[in-house]
Design a protein that fits this description.
CATH architecture: Orthogonal Bundle
Radius of gyration: 13 Å
Number of strands: 0
Strand content: under 5%
Order of helices and strands: HHHHHHH
Number of helices: 7
């Protein structure tokens, strides 16, 4: 799944609320996502950018929330791509992946 498809399939509003309830997002981060109600792709990109800059535990929470909210396609793509955080060879792979797809998306 390319970044563009990832950002269109991700329900950032639902994931954001769940991550906030699990204390993996701050209120300010949640509000920045929720303020983009009428722009779901931008909300998803905002959430992905927030996750990219967080510790691996936040990424693990993100994966768990994807499963719990039935966003299996997004979850499977990330896991099959080797981006399971600490379970992968190197947690930096995750950040590298997000940074590169963000650069590609901005071209």
């Amino acid at each position: 799944m390319q970044y563009g498809k990832l950002s269109t399939e991700l329900d950032a509003h639902t994931v954001g609320v769940q991550m906030y309830e699990r204390k993996s997002l701050t209120l300010r981060e949640l509000q920045s996502i929720q303020s983009l109600t009428d722009r779901p792709v931008q909300a998803a990109e905002t959430l992905l950018n927030i996750i990219m800059e967080q510790p691996d535990a936040v990424y693990q929470c993100f994966l768990n929330v994807l499963k719990r909210t039935g966003q299996d396609d997004v979850y499977q793509t990330l896991v099959e791509g080797g981006y399971e955080g600490e379970k992968s060879e190197n947690a930096k792979i995750r950040k590298y992946m997000f940074r590169n797809v963000t650069k590609i998306n901005s071209l």
